[in-house]
Specification:
InterPro entries: Asp_de-COase-like_dom_sf, MoPterin_dinucl-bd_dom, Mopterin_OxRdtase, Mopterin_OxRdtase_4Fe-4S_dom, Prok_molybdopt-oxidoreductase. This is Molybdopterin oxidoreductase family protein. The chain is of the alpha/beta class and about 725 residues long. It is built from 22 helices and 29 strands. The protein starts with a strand and ends in a 5-residue tail after the last strand. Bound molecules: iron/sulfur cluster.
């Protein structure tokens, strides 16, 4: 029996069919892959027609069934004994031990000593319930999640400019008709390959403009007359955006009618742009002044083309983590939004601005109360009306809801410290690998009084735990996800879970009962979703009009906001922005001081990113044989001109180090990186972990860490010939 569901990984949430191996009729050219299911039946995945993937799956997607019957699958809770060894125990004992640890932390250090770290990979139901569980059962404000590492700056900038943050405020299919696309800091050709089909229209028009310090697989799509590749020095995206906006204003390319009718703040913005003429931008970014001008003109040309009816679509500006993962990420994303507003893109039916969410439920994960400063419905936790509404749904008094907690990096810095978190619950995150300054995080985890990790394999974080709780995988239970378009979709149970693994919803229900929490905690996903609908009603991310039955099939797409009685909102801002006065806000921004000094003699700039074969910390994809054999280890990309004086040849083992840590990786010499830059993927653990080198300095608005620039030294460790 085949089951229609969606991929376990990224925010594209490609539609797939899971069926017993050999039973899928695979159309010629369509991807499919097999793996053993947890029930012992081999499953294979094939792509299904759906607007985001149109039948395509990437290598990660079609090998995903192999995860279901991984030999490394956990099937019993594990408790660390006095000898330091993790041993299987029963569920009753595991839950009792977790509840005892919470009570001990409360008694010794107060309720704030308990913390929760969630994930943008959790279903909407789990993300919602985890926020409620933290605040009512664990009685702590200290919950945050790994979305703080990937979307928080774009979210803060969207809220600042539009009054609302939804990754793409338009259906992805709108992009197909684009005349011009400016894509900054996103390597979709590796991270979400089916997305590339949506760029074909712009490539055909010669209008794909990619901004990336590396000639990534996506930047290479601009070759052959398909567009432009701008290759700025890492960390200078804001200066580049200011320069493009300067040209738009000074060459009369701004949409003055749109600016007057729909925005505030034009004059201060123009004054702030005066200082960013293209030659100055060239000196800061390394991007030739003429390319800065050319980009501005092409963006304006796309809009003109659509208005004149010469092309079905106009201009789109899209940002990704390369722009956002900086200490000035919110301001850099704001610079991109300012540019889009000057051109009149947002709220248009033929053009737009958006940001590409990375994690599978990166969008839904930030709407339902996992963030330290938010309640369900994307409500501010400090808003008295929001607290009253959510408290009423939960059947408690507003005073029983804690206030704001700590954003992720601050929460991790507090681990084991006086006044900090002493007992931590981790759900769906491998923070020992994915966090900035990962060595310090590992030390923090080891200093805790008690660490509980819920996962389905022994990830590097679970390996540090006092108690590991084995949980279900994506195809073993029902739930909903919200993709990068803000579209809510159903994930379906396709196989029986292994004996001994449990849903996080069940775990929360059992622990809440042991801790005598107020309110109810269901382990039924649909019941939890019904409660989520009520809690979100009237909020910015309103799901109250969406039901499980409606999501049964793909032919009635559900885009939030979707108030009860409405038809949802595929395209946002067509009539008004979400600020009370309906107008978008232009906010002047300027580059600040880098978190650490770059360009010192003998040092290079490390930037990090992803590979086609791996997803996030690699905890899942490193356990899929086909993926791990294709990319078993990280490669340090460096320019041949950089490698030569260092005595590093292709394939040599190199050491990359700074004051935070030391990493070993084999060298890959390539002109795809700038001579002042080296690149490492961040999917690998231990001495191969790129995040041993990254900084825990954060954006003051969003709490986003500076992942994308770190000063490092590189030296040869072993020559390839003598390995
Ligand atoms: Fe899965 Fe993303 Fe690949 Fe689609 S692009 S198959 S959602 S990992």
């Amino acid at each position: 029996m085949a089951t229609n569901t969606h991929c376990p990984y990224c925010a594209l949430q490609c539609a797939m069919r899971l069926a017993p191996a050999g039973r899928i009729a695979v159309p010629a050219g369509a991807a499919s892959g097999a793996g053993d299911s947890s029930a012992g039946t081999a499953l294979e995945a094939s792509g299904r027609d759906f607007p985001t993937n149109r039948g395509g799956l990437c290598r990660k997607g079609w090998t995903s069934p192999a995860l279901l019957n991984s030999p490394e699958r956990l099937t019993a809770p594990l408790l660390r004994g006095p000898d330091g060894v993790l041993r299987p125990i029963g569920w009753d004992e595991a839950l009792d031990r977790a509840a005892d640890a919470v009570r001990a932390a409360w008694e010794r250090h107060g309720t704030d000593a308990v913390g929760v770290f969630g994930s943008g990979g959790l279903t909407n139901e789990k993300a919602y319930q985890l926020g409620k569980f933290a605040r009512l059962a664990l009685r702590t404000p200290r919950i945050d999640y790994n979305g703080r590492f990937c979307m928080s700056s774009a979210a803060a900038a969207g809220n600042r400019a539009f009054g609302l943050d939804r990754g793409l405020p338009f259906p992805l299919a709108d992009l197909d008709h684009a005349h011009t696309v400016l894509l900054l800091g996103s390597n979709v050709a590796d991270t979400m390959p089916p997305f590339v089909a949506h760029l074909q229209g712009a490539r055909d028009a010669g209008g794909l403009i990619v901004v990336d310090p590396r000639r990534s697989a996506t930047a290479a799509l601009t070759g052959g007359g398909a567009g432009l590749h701008l290759q700025p020095t890492p960390g200078t995206d804001m200066a580049l955006l200011l320069g493009i906006a300067h040209v738009v204003v000074h060459e009369g390319l701004a949409d003055q009618d749109f600016v007057q009718r729909r925005t505030d703040g034009y004059r201060p913005l123009v004054r702030s742009l005066n200082a960013w003429w293209p030659e100055r931008v060239q000196s800061v970014t390394g991007v030739p002044a003429e390319l800065v001008r050319e980009t501005a003109r092409r963006l304006a040309e796309g809009v003109r083309s659509a208005r004149a009816g010469l092309s079905a679509g106009g201009t789109y500006i899209l940002t990704g983590r390369g722009v956002e993962q900086h200490v000035d990420g919110t301001d850099t994303a704001t610079a991109a939004i300012n540019l889009s507003l000057l051109l009149g893109l947002p709220g248009s039916s033929h053009s737009g601005y958006g940001t590409l969410t990375g994690q599978g439920n990166g969008q839904g994960g930030r709407e339902h109360g996992q963030k330290s400063d938010q309640l369900p419905g994307y409500r501010k936790i400090t808003d008295p009306a929001a607290r009253e509404h959510v408290a009423a749904v939960w059947g408690v008094a507003p005073e029983q809801l804690p206030g704001p907690g700590l954003p992720a990096v601050e929460l991790l810095k507090s681990l084991g410290r006086p006044g900090g978190v002493r007992c931590l619950f981790v759900h769906g995150s491998n923070i020992a690998v994915s966090s900035p300054d990962a060595g310090a995080v590992l030390a923090g985890l080891r200093s805790l009084d008690f660490l509980v990790v819920a996962d389905f394999v022994l990830s590097e974080t679970a390996a540090e735990a006092d108690l590991v709780l084995p949980v279900l995988q994506w195809a073993e239970e029902e739930g909903t996800m919200t993709n990068l378009e803000g579209r809510v979709i159903r994930r379906r149970r396709a196989v029986d879970p292994p004996e001994g693994a449990r849903s996080e919803l069940w775990i929360m229900r059992e622990l809440a009962a042991r801790l005598q929490a107020p309110s109810t905690f269901s382990d039924d996903p649909e019941t939890v979703f019904e409660e989520l609908r009520l809690a979100s009603a009237g909020g910015l991310a309103d799901y109250s009009g969406i039901g499980y039955a409606q999501l049964e099939h793909d032919d009635a797409p559900a885009y939030w906001p979707f108030p009860a009685g409405s038809a949802g909102t595929p395209r946002l801002f067509l009539k008004a922005f979400a600020h009370p006065d309906g107008r978008a806000k232009l906010t002047p921004v300027s580059p600040g001081v880098p978190a650490e000094q770059l360009h010192r003699a003998g040092e290079l700039i490390l930037t990090t990113g992803r590979l086609l074969e791996h997803y996030q910390s690699g905890a899942q994809t490193r356990r899929v044989a086909e993926l791990s054999s294709a990319q078993p280890e990280p490669r340090l990309q460096l320019h041949p001109a950089t490698a030569l004086p260092l005595g590093i040849g292709d394939g040599d083992m190199a050491e990359i180090s700074n004051g935070r840590g030391t990493v070993r990786a084999r060298a890959e010499l390539t002109t795809a990186v700038r001579p002042d830059t080296v690149f490492l993927p961040f999917h690998f653990p231990g001495e191969q972990s790129a995040n041993l080198l990254t900084q825990a300095a954060t954006d003051p608005v969003s709490g986003m860490p500076e992942f994308k620039t770190s000063a490092v030294r590189v030296r040869v460790l072993e020559k390839a010939g003598i390995l």
